[in-house]
Specification:
Chain lengths: 209, 209
Amino acid sequence: MKEHIVISKATIDRLPLYFRTLRLVQQEGTEIISSEELGRRIGVTPEQIRKDLASFGEFGKKGVGYFVRELIRNIGEILGLHRNWNIAIVGVGHLGWALANYKNFASLGFNLAAVFDVDPAKVGQLIGGVEIYSIDRLEEVARERNIHIGVITVPAESAQEVADKLVAAGVRGIWNFAPIKLNVADNVRLVSEDLSVGLSSISYYLSRQ
Amino acid sequence: MKEHIVISKATIDRLPLYFRTLRLVQQEGTEIISSEELGRRIGVTPEQIRKDLASFGEFGKKGVGYFVRELIRNIGEILGLHRNWNIAIVGVGHLGWALANYKNFASLGFNLAAVFDVDPAKVGQLIGGVEIYSIDRLEEVARERNIHIGVITVPAESAQEVADKLVAAGVRGIWNFAPIKLNVADNVRLVSEDLSVGLSSISYYLSRQ
């Protein structure tokens, strides 16, 4: 697996797009696809796709294209998908609800195993087929359910405390939506989403037209 | 403004993080901040910050730091924020609700001007202080409200049709959350969010521990 280590973050971030698009292509009954067609559907250049895929192995046939099923299996393995990662969502606002019901996650092999909220009125309710637990039981339930990845959708002021409890419970992946910089140990993989980035990027380009 | 054109996309994507962090710093009463402290709070290296900021001008004093208020104003101008961009959200599922109530947008100068949904039961309701209109009136209302940016939170199968209607109504910025590749004219700025990318990135690293 050594060669996977050298894949750039930019490439890793594109792999899920390749993966998802290839699965759509497969559903359409296509068995072989060219880098041109794949690039057209994803919105990147064929050169970029050939470069990305070449960075972790030899796929497809020159002048023929990529074998869809093989490529899906390989990219899935590289991304560590379908290992049934257990994920927990902490904070059941609208975003927490949206994520708990986001179909793509299950199809990628992520298993919603627990949901937590501070509101007693929500505790005991079902969301995405999973019971909502009191945030007071976060550590206990996260450990019991063997949670691998914690999704933080609480307000900024509670996010660090939630992250600390998740890590204390053995969670090694944190996906943070709270608009605040979290501090976690080096052996914890933290990915923070900032919804204002996409909008600001559009604003940047619009203001130049 | 020529020099702004050459800023790399990676830098542009970091600017909103700088902007948001600097505003927090300002609220704490700090007037000058070093690249080390700013980097620590954002989670990037001081070198990266100095490189990013140097790419669009001279800020701060060597050995002193950056002047927070000045830097906030400059980054805001570069990102084209506070021009009161009118945004419309199309599709009031949980994600649409979450985005309509996302406080950060207003604080960046984005004005939620219209919301649309296909469900007659939702039409007429208020969301984020704005009335929900029938999606049948998308073109008419988007034009009337001078919508600059359309946020697409409808299911994948309706996303392209919604994008086409927004563009037909003069919308030049599209922020797409539907898990599908949209096709828009070259004069339209399209940013697509893929929520499975962050999670797959975590999965990639966890599977290597």
